[in-house]
Amino acid sequence: MGIGRPRQLGRREAFLNRHFTGVSIDYRQIISLFIPILIDQAFLVGLNLVNTAMISSSGVDAVSAVNMVDSLNIFLISVFIAVSTGGTVVVAQYKGSGNDQMVSKSAASSVSSVTLVALAISLIVVAFHNPMLNLLFGAATPEVFAEGKTYLIGSGLSYVGIAMMEAVCGALRGIGRSRASLMLSLVMNLSYVLLNIVFINLMHMGVLGLTISVNISRYAAAILAIIYLVKIDTSLRLRIRDLLAFNLTMLKKILFIGMPFAAEQMFFNGGKIVTQTFVVGLGTYAIATNAISGSLANVLQIPSNALAITTITVIGQCIGQQNIEDARKFTRSFLWLSAACLLFMALIMIPLFYPLVGLFHPPSDIVNDILIITLINALAQVVFWSISFIMPSALRAAGDSKFTSVVSLLSMWLFRIVLGYLLSIVFNFGIIGVWVAMNLEWGVRGMIFLWRFRGKKWYRHKLID
What we know:
The chain is an all-alpha fold. It has helices at residues 4-20, 27-56, 60-97, 100-127, 129-137, 142-157, 159-174, 178-202, 206-232, 240-244, 248-281, 284-300, 302-320, 324-349, 353-358, 364-397, 401-426, 431-454. Helix 2 packs antiparallel against helix 12 (284-300), helix 3 runs parallel beside helix 6 (142-157) and helix 8 packs antiparallel against helix 9 (206-232).
């Protein structure tokens, strides 16, 4: 027993060194970066699961309205999160090159630019909420539409708060401080759930209570994030006036990565909204089925989503050191690890399907559809998800954002939407057809990213000096 354990530890360390250690970074640094992000993703998905379950207690109309508007929220929020990702890439590359002064400047520019983008989006949403809802979801029932109006206005008011928090967390992940990012995220999400318990479960305020909770939690986290940057973190040496300064050169670098990604996210999530209009047309039960299936799919993706976020920092720092061999090695390792995680999560989750779906109090008529979607999605994710999401994170971290954006746009609009319409509406597969089309689109997009990765163009972008 005494001899066997050291041998086992030796084999484990040899495996980690072979696949997750290079000149740029070693496996211990990757683990210390990954674990807080994993915990963050687990809490984020878990708390969203709890929130969806809580709002489900207010009825099918409430959960349908939240899911309907969240497709628009994701579309809008993804724009400033994309700009924040541009900041993460620039910060990570400067960190890899050892230029601490430029790390601070890029972090400050990221926070200020993301906040301005979010403010503009927030004003547009609040001013034009009614035309937006009529254009996109006019087919919804009056009850669902009324709840959706309340939720959209409340969500729009909260955009600046979550934008500031995401920008700060993105900058912190760029320099490898994922623990601080985790703490800020936990503050936001735990307070959100606790407030939801008060406003939804105790005060029975339904969707209105949800909007109050989201605003308080996001702005509280934003204030703490700025306090952390200015008062607590000593490595970045940021001041309030640094966040208010306008650095055009740095802004261009951030937007070089962020804007193509933002355009991609707008059109990509715009495609999801188009798909959502198919779902709305299928009825309230189809909207609820889509919402619950999406929540369960998010649970399956927890470790892999954490790896996709980790990839940006790791590959960004490798490229900052101009170490292409490490960038290739870590990308391949993350792909295989992500696929293994998705398989592991599916094997755990499928036997627990009925207890999990019971949290949402679904009508018995839709449980079988949710099960079929979950089984199809679990299988497809193991094969297709990693090449479709881990791979573009690596390419984008190297500065190859235009290519990844164009591919994602074309695959979404030429494949997922057209096929989704054919399967769900023309061939009458309903909500199941929408999910089958989405899974197949992952495979198409992922194969193109793999082809790009095998070449040389993806790492030849000059982003930093």
